[in-house]
Task: structure prediction
Amino acid sequence: MRQFFYPRSEAEAADIVRAHAASKTPLRLAGGNTRALIGHPVAAEFCLRSTSLSGITAYNPAEMVMTARAGTPVREIEAALAEKGQMMAFEPMDHRGLLGTSGEPTIGGLFSVNSSGPRRLTAGAARDHLLGLRFVNGRGEPIKAGGRVMKNVTGLDLVKLLAGAYGTLGFLTEVTFKVLPVPPVTETVLVSGLGDAEAAIAMATAMALPVEVSGAAHLPFTVRHRFLGNRLPDGAATVFRLEGLAASVGARLQKLVSALAGFGPVSRIATPESRILWQEIRDCRAYADGTSRPLWRISAAPSAGHRIVAALRLEAGVDACYDWQGGLVWMRMEADPEAGLLRELIRAAGGGHATLIRASEAVRTAVPVFEPEAPGLAALTRRVKAALDPEGIFNPGLLYPEQGGV
Amino acid sequence: MGETIRFLTPKAPVLARRDAIIADLKDLLPPECLVHEERALVPFETDGFIAYRRRPLAVALPGSTAEVAALLKYCHRYQVPVVPRGAGTSLSGGAIPEEDALVICLSRMNRILEVDTANRTATVQAGVTNLSISDRVGPEGFFYAPDPSSQLACTIGGNIGMNSGGAHCLKYGVTTNNLLGVKMVLVDGSVIELGGKALDSGGYDLLGLVCGSEGQLGIVTEATVRILAKPEGARPVLFGFETPEDAGACVSAVIAAGIIPVAMEFMDREAIAICEAFAHAGYPLDVGALLIVEVEGSEAEMEASLQSVIEIARRFGVKTVKESQSAMEAAAIWKGRKSAFGATGRIADYICMDGTVPLGQLSHVLKRTGEIVAGYGLRVANVFHAGDGNMHPLILYNINDPEEAAKAEAAGNDILKLCVEAGGCLTGEHGVGIEKRDLMTVQYRPADLAQQMAVRAAFDPGWLLNRSKVFPLEGRAE
Result:
């Protein structure tokens, strides 16, 4: 990297982008750089960072909405929310442990990767909570999309398009998002000793009950020791979270325990430890192992997750754990990422997608990190990219270098 | 009546070739699936926004994705404009056709293709009605959450087009939060699939972009939606307040206290009288405003939540608290609310506004709405989703009185500008359609609109799909 730009205003950012668009010079877009290792390496000599666009600009707890500049540290936002007993209900993941990065994650970076944790099951993803944003497009124009109200269908939803675009469509300058009250009580029900397939059935059973399970994860025996300082009971741990007012959680807990009793030994984890456990699940503590061994993040139908893992196990050395009722699989490879084989198995299991969330730079250069798209869809992706970034200067090749530089 | 909203001029070459086009279309569809005789076209002339009507070139009723693809491929080749249509319940004119347009109506594609309870999904054709999904999965203990008032009639395809909400979206979100995947036909007749049964899809969030795009990006033919475990019980409670301000303040206080009921619906005095006369729901008639607050869960949970809400309501001088004592009473309470538009339609013609404002602005906007409408010498009934700030003032007027109609439209425009000034938006769940199209410039600057249109052009560069809608006719790139 030859030069970093730290604009202090949206106008300044727009000037920088305009100059680079005119000379067709690629820009690496970044916030805190804690998620910069996700995706294909970007060939750019210049980096545009949001970290000097920082600060919460509006927060009215009674309206459950916050507006912040894109470079605001997530830590600062979480602290301001906690002071008012609120939270980002989608539980954004902190990627630092997994990727071995340091620095401060920013709110813009978080929405750029659409980072959502265990509560994705019931509360939705980051994109579902993002109400509005301001960004600079590839022409260097400041653009406003969405707003600050909960319901808004006025025009095309560019907000969702920008969320999860990994900085390939625009440089975020400000985000407005929904927040929710922190539930006073968080309890966890744990079933011990289940195999992956049994766990999938147990999780589907729990999610079909009217008890509002807000987290359903399966931690096989190979990773169980990495959670709560190795204090979970022996064997695989299948965990279910209940949240809310004390009286309500108590009543639901009884129902859930009796529904799960037939699956295996059941135990409980109370509020303070529960909160830590789900934070560790959120951050994929299982594979925050200080290595750069290839790690897949697979999103599939909940009942298909374990089937994909079992099928791949016949061909390669893999270790896996599950969130989102089994529909989110974290899978660490012993050696080669086996991208082609894995993606074939996902298709055979009914579809989904796999992202090589961690791998060495050499591997990320050679292997398609994101799920390759069918030709018709790939062409559409290219046209959408061109509609926002006609010169292709934002993070070129980060997503699909093989699909024309997107 | 005098029309103030303009449509694009019909394409003369298309009109001139009408007979030839109809002859060609007959080759693409079974004979009973093409409507082209003048009288038979009448029902398709308008939608829920009845002040405007246009007779379409023809109406196609395809039965499969392949037929939709063949129709679009043909229309693309001969540059025939297309207007997608579900049940035609749009309140913003989203399904109103044009003289040169082929209406592609999905109502025959009404099969539920798969219910997968282990993964909690339902895959349906786009013409399936909203309520029929819940009806189908109900016996297995599930439901489909978004519940627009027109849920008996409106289709999932239409819900996706408008990103429809409903009374219960305070807790469960709107269509976009409950949609996992679609199969859709692009303007050139090619078919793409977005998402599936996984909770998130790879690549750009085109699913999020398509949801709420008002038929501008393609025609959705199938959808995979999330179904949820049905709560054990649900109980609506009526709260009567002296003034709308008290009710509005109570809503803010409930939310600030960290209680998120499933629904919080507001009605003012006018709306209460109209709905009570129609539904006999037992609404109190001696109050200035009514809140319907619904909580759900087990008996104990509902009791606990209700007590907290009642305590807060007392702080705002609540006059009446009426808990439903039976399933029938609960149904009557909701029947009153959900028939608000229909009941209003029995006593007068009305325009229904749909602006959303930040919660802190509710009282102010409500008061100004009353003043604005009174200033035009008209009456207004307010019913809305208070928990999320989505307002629905119903401006009452006589559609056969051109002067009154013009006043009603002007009052509506003033109200929407007020919503935007208060930090809100033009439409929370009904869509822009033709109704709010020319107000888009109030909410967005030219560069913002140009960016949206550039993205639109990535899907339909030739402006064939629902082309008179959403974006102001002036300033469009050709």
User: Anything to note?
Assistant: The mean pLDDT of chain B is 94. The two ends of chain B are 31 Å apart (CA to CA).
